[in-house]
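Onboarding guide, step 5: your first structure request.
Type a short instruction followed by the sequence, for example:

Predict the 3D structure of this protein.
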Amino acid sequence: MRLSFLWSVVAMSLLLCASVSARERDSEGRYHLTDDEKNTMLSPAQRAHLLDIMGQARNLADARRASKHHRRWSPNNSYGPAKIKCPGKPQGDNFVGYVRNASDNKIHPLEADYMDRHRKAIRKQWKDWLNSVNLGGNDGIDGGLDQFLAQHQPKLGIGISGGGYRAMLVGMSVLQGLDGRNGTAKQRGVGGVMQLADYMAGLSGGSWAVAAMAMNNWQTPQNTTQFMDLGNNLVLPDKDTMSFYTDLFNDVDDKKDAGFPVSISDYWGRAESYHVLDPAVYPSRGQNTTISDYVNVTAFEDGTGPLPIVLSIGRDFNEIMINQNATYFEFTPFEFGTWQPDLQAFFPVGYLGSDMTKGEPTKNNECVAGFDNLGYTIATSSTLFNGAYTMLLEDNVTSILGDIAKSILQDVGKSNNDVAPVPNPFKEYTAKRNQYLKADFIDLVDGGEANQNIPFEPLMQPARGLDLVIGIDAGTDQAGWPNGSSIVETWKRSKNPEFNYMAFPNVPDTNTFVNLGLNTHPTFFGCNASDYVNADSALEKMPPVVVYVPNYPYSYQSNTSTFQLAYGSDEVQGILDNGLEVATMAGKIPDWGTCLACASVLRPLQRAKMQVPNKCQSCFSRFCWNGETETKSPEPFTPPTGPPPFVLSKGHKNVQPPHTGDNESSGFDLGDFMDSKDSASSVYAPMSMMVALMLASLVVFL
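The system replies with structure tokens like these:
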């Protein structure tokens, strides 16, 4: 009996944790796995064992379901959403029932109220930081900081890229280098910037970082990693493995019993919740924790925390390939929706899952609460799963168990369980070009599948009016390191006429990024307010300066595999320490804090027609991209551990780092995916159980 089909099932489950993958696809978007790749990841013996486990898991799932006698409906104690009476309708001319028409390019009143409260709460921190980097005083900002901040306080956003646990850890590590509570970061001039952020956006693995930081009250990144239990594999916990899976199935069954379609994203999201939420604060491990619960976090109540945003992509019905202009959907603690001109509409995220038509409840004032589960929300942004099942069905499977598995994948393909389905709140809502007009569900996929791996989209919106956007890139474009392709892809997208309302800075090609070493250190784009795509047509004539911050091995080779789902304590600490060096450039450039401050105040000063301090000119001459390109193919990018040439030259040398030849791409490895760290446990049997239980669960709800 051929077992390659069953290996492919495992491969599809593995793909769930990825962001943008380098694996090639065919014209229909299907992943192709060679026999060598299959044998590397699961041996024939392991595949045979998987068949045996599948049979056991199917029987276990059937027995569990047969013994279930009641449903848990309350959104307060269950993963399953609950039916409730709809709240009062929002008031305003731009609301159609519960749907907010965002064509006026304004943020929701609740978001506006929070931003007003938040910005007042952090004003003193702005003053303290700007003073600490010498932008106050006689040779600083004209008129003094009090007057400047009262009228022109900068607006700051931070975006964290995708890339699994690597992206989560790299993102948090850079935040550690910007954290005012970190003594080294403060001494080097950039500590405190994290506390000045108005928005924090993440996609794929970056959304895990945002969720972990936000929902745990913005603890220090160092403290946050202490409860995340990263040495315990995300899908293969060392202890109570069967209990872990049983709890997952019970939770997901509650959602299914409540009448909602479930997908592997539900299991994935529940597993993620066990790591991103502090069990001391969330003893149910996120079973009933929603993204809208952020309003109960202390940092929200006192206005000190940034507003978290999770970014996903809407996949068109029957679409396999995700095109560059795909619709981005964002989750905030207030809303779910999109700014893109074809819809430009939002719905209260706390009532997502409600059956709506033309913005009104379809059933007698009946709404739903609890669908916006935090784990499911971040799972919608980290589900790279489209297209593979079509290829897998080409295998000739003849056994009974094989036919069961084949029927699962056939149904997954037909019912779109290969994505994260969200009940469509915009059904029959009239917009310019509502592609979801008749759709019952919006199918969400990995936020990085359009190759824009940094979540710039929500941060560049004119409605939010940001002055500075810091984009953290943990991509693995070239030998496991970023090469600028993420920001380049966003630049390409912005040139489409559909997006002419939103400006984006001009950036060079990826070859130039590598040849000039722009992928080795923070670089400013858009210092010249006219050097933007859509500079004339954009609604915001002074769009944000973008600070591109790529992952680089200052002190540690942090280009780990996207598929590595367990990290030992030494690895975690190595990445955290390296990210601090990335954010502070190892303390080698004494005026780096001043330069970042100059970038943050540049737009407000330009908008107010105020003079930019003279000391900023030196900063801009070193950190702003000056338009130079070098498009020849670069040498292999395998940098040595240590600061790059730009940093060692104190910002005067833009070249590619030396080629070591010993730092190849940290691509997929079975051991990375299956191993737990700090543990000697056996791995392949639990892995088989995980996949088998997932498949068996799908059989149950077919």
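Each response can be followed by summary notes, for example: The chain has a mean pLDDT of 82.
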